Amino acid sequence: MEEILEILESNNKITEEQIATMVNKSVEEVRDAIKKYEEDNVILGYISLINWEKTTKESVTALIEVKVTPQRGEGFDKVAERIYRYPEVKACYLMSGGFDLTVIVEGKTMKEVALFVAEKLSPLESVLSTSTHFVLKKYKDKGTIFEKKQKDDREAVVL
Amino acid sequence: MNISEMILPSVRQVPPSGIRKFFDLVNEMKDAISLSIGEPDFVTPWNIREAGIYSLEKGYTHYSPNAGFIELREEICKFQERKYNLKYDPKNQVIVTVGGSEGIDIALRSLVGPGDEVIIPEPSFVAYKPCAIFAGATPVIINLSAESEFRLTPELLEKAITDKTKVLILPYPNNPTGAVMEKKDLEGIVEVLKDRDIIVISDEIYSELTYEGKHISIASFPEMKEKTLVINGFSKAYAMTGWRLGYCLGHPDLISAMYKIHQYAIMCSPTTAQYAAIEALRNSDDDVETMMREYNRRRRIMVEGYRSAGLDCFEPLGAFYVFPCIKSTGMTSYEFSERLLMEEKVAVVPGTAFGECGEGYIRSCYASSMDNIVEAMKRIKRFVEKNKK
Question: What are its GO biological-process terms (chain B) (predicted)?
Fold first, then answer.
């Protein structure tokens, strides 16, 4: 049944009927499986991947390397939670290597993001240091290439 | 001088592809959804492309050995053993060709000439019959039917064999029907052939694309090993059609005969493609698996689509084609395909392109994006309902 997840991950607009045909199961079985995945937080949501650069909306993304002090008994989880609760934070990962947390922040302008770092993130007690990198251009995200050729330009040949 | 009279009768005899006109029409209609193209829509996996690019950067731009790089032949043998339990010696039982197509041509040219008969089950790939004719031989067609799911039966084969029969073409998994031959089907064929002096050219180019159960080669039957020439290649499994690379496996005497023609006509297969193919065989099983799973989903959507449109459609278990029956619409294959293109802008191929017995069927290829397939099936349903007799 995990094939259902693969299918949904690549296209969540697909209908339950279509999934059922694809995996050779009944619609009920597929519906039940999806419901269970949702209840178990395996399927966390159904979101769309949008290239905001093609719209009029102003948007900047920054990747922030954060060094923190882990807390006794809580490890990094508590600090991470303090950070990821901000709606500006779109992603937050615990890392191995030279720093502890990767925080992806989105804002309307660079100034907005900079203010977030200066006023919200850095002052947190456990945060030792931050290093902010702005994204200049997105080439690929979630396995999807942004400027890819959409047209099927194969010629019909005799075979 | 009348040039056309200078052309060999055997070449003149082969009509220009009847389907060409239809394909010209398809190519003109830029906004049509095409289910007519018999090649993967996927681009060659990046690691394979990269290996080709790297070979160019290193300056590997020269001829390869005539039979192909030994490294590649070794990988081919390992692959065939791992996948289909076929054992061949990379030194004298493998030849790397320019696509499976060259293999078909040089095999037939090595084996048959005037007075010899080549048995070809149809519907099948368009090249077998012309290649037999160009070699001077006589094609003997077996008309397969949907009742036997387009599998070759021992009875039909027995009937087609004469004392002139020298070669049987065994094209499974099949283009255009999607039919496969399972073990029990092959057993019947082996029974007919085991005591006869007939070479089997087993075209297994779609061997990696089977959906319920694994492909079995007729060469895996010990009594058939010597008299089978296996043709395979990289086009379908690895989405490498444009690289033009295939190979043949068989008895050393047959391979060395084919080698002669190959070395004088072709020299060697493209070097860049060979480097890419080595990478394909070594590190791309996962990519093949991923593409295969996606094809399988599309296959089910397409079969379901035709059936819900009210057309009979047997379940194809291999390749990437569905071969539904359109007789219930009262149209011929050509009419159906042409009107579907004009009225709904969906391109399929008339079954007659693959043999006369393809009349009443269309070939519909699911090597196209899922979105395209879903939309095309909607249009086909509308078209069939409008024209239902």
Answer: amino acid metabolic process
